[in-house]
Amino acid sequence: MPTKIVLAYSGGLDTSVILKWLQNKYECPVVTFTADIGQGDELSPIEAKAKNLGVEEIFIEDLQEEFVRDYVFPMFRANTLYEGTYLLGTAIARPLIAKRQIEIAKIVGADAVAHGATGKGNDQVRFELGYYANNPKIEVIAPWRDWEFESRNDLIDYAEKNQITVPKDKMGEPPFSTDANLLHTSSEGKLLENPWVEPPEYVFSRTKSIEDALDQPEMITIEFKNGDPVSINEDNLKPHEILAKLNSVAGNHGVGRIDIVENRFVGMKSRGIYETPGGTILLHARRAIESITLDKGEAHLKDEIMPKYAEVIYNGFWFSTERIAMQELIDSMQNKVNGHVKLKIFKGNIIILGRKSPNSLYDSRIVSFDEKGDYNQKDAEGFIKINSIRLKNKI
């Protein structure tokens, strides 16, 4: 039996019920931990909610800078996409939360941690692998896999019996569930579960529709140093400020929406609506600057590694040796990824207008049709003949 528990607490109905359930079941102190990673206004009532449920040790920490600097940006250096489309906005947040939760458990002398992820999703895996990677001996409590409740109505009944405020929109079945941080907002479940049905416009919270997007394009220039963005329009910004600025620009122009059916790590398919406005701009800009600064072999090697790297993060193995090894290889190529990318953002489109770098490998003297340069076109004849041998031998 645990003597003290640290709960990853969002302040919503589910984790509020979990908090009370832990107190009643284990009869020990429960410490709440809430990570501010850019989810916005939903953080404001959390302290009061925890106090009303008898919590004496409450941790609410602003981790936005660490989140972007140490998790989002390293992931973006790989131009990471899971199954070709998903920018991993939820997956990349879980290792940071798990790591800090374990650190807080050590600070307060807790021997157990708990989370609010359900038994059907990926987050239970991500949280718990993160816990064990940072403290192999920690006790993990996953109430959704252990408790007696079988439906959301059971949770509501329990909440009402324990004087837990139930938001009006949760009195019935909620229309869908959301998760938000500085990188993205995800929506899934209920009315979104049928992949044939178009999501209603009110599902989207941080991007305008194409119809409502601004009628004038916006030009921006992003500067990169060692693979990371450092300024927008020559305005030097911190990592989380850059992402916030790009979110604003992209959101106003209808950039960053995707509607996908993904393969969860636990084996089922799931339909999700994702908004990753600033991240979508950043992905296009990074590929543009790398197109002139990385050698062909480096660029293609990165593209070969990327799907594996994405899967490792999606599945919750951020702290694994293979992710760290891939990160070191990717980062070893980034010291040349310096320069500026000029973009036009308009009506859901990201248009690359130009790119320049002091480390550019682009040589107009070689590629130009107007100059002979150091390239002898006659050499291509032998190159083609050698590469045609295996094709000729098939006939």
Could you outline the blueprint of secondary structure elements for this entry?
Layout: E1 5-8, H1 13-26, E2 30-36, H2 46-52, E3 58-62, H3 64-76, H4 94-108, E4 112-114, H5 123-134, E5 139-141, H6 143-146, H7 152-161, E6 177-180, E7 185-188, E8 218-225, E9 228-232, E10 235-236, H8 239-252, E11 257-263, E12 269-275, H9 277-293, H10 296-314, H11 321-332, E13 339-346, E14 349-356, H12 364-367, H13 379-392
Parallel strand pairs: 1-2, 1-4, 2-3, 4-5
Antiparallel strand pairs: 6-7, 7-12, 8-9, 8-13, 9-10, 11-12, 13-14
Helix pairs in contact: 1-7, 3-8, 4-5, 8-9, 10-11
What descriptors fit this protein?
Argininosuccinate synthetase, chain A, domain 2; 395 residues; 14 strands; Rossmann fold; alpha/beta; five-stranded parallel β-sheet
Number of domains: 2
Strand content: 15-25%
Integer average pLDDT: 93
CATH fold field value of the largest domain: Rossmann fold
Shape: elongated
Compute the number of strand runs: 14
Structural class: alpha/beta
From the N-terminal CA to the C-terminal CA, the straight-line distance is 74 Å
Q: State the fourth-level CATH superfamily of the largest domain.
A: HUPs
Share of helical residues: 25-40%
Oligomer: single chain
The Rg value, from CA coordinates, equals 24 Å
Contiguous helical run count: 13
CATH architecture of the largest domain: 3-Layer(aba) Sandwich
Cross-sheet strand order for the largest sheet: 3-2-1-4-5
List low-pLDDT spans. Answer: none
N to C succession of SSEs: EHEHEHHEHEHHEEEEEHEEHHHEEHH
The CATH class designation of the largest domain is Alpha Beta
Biggest β-sheet strands, sense, barrel: 5 strands, parallel
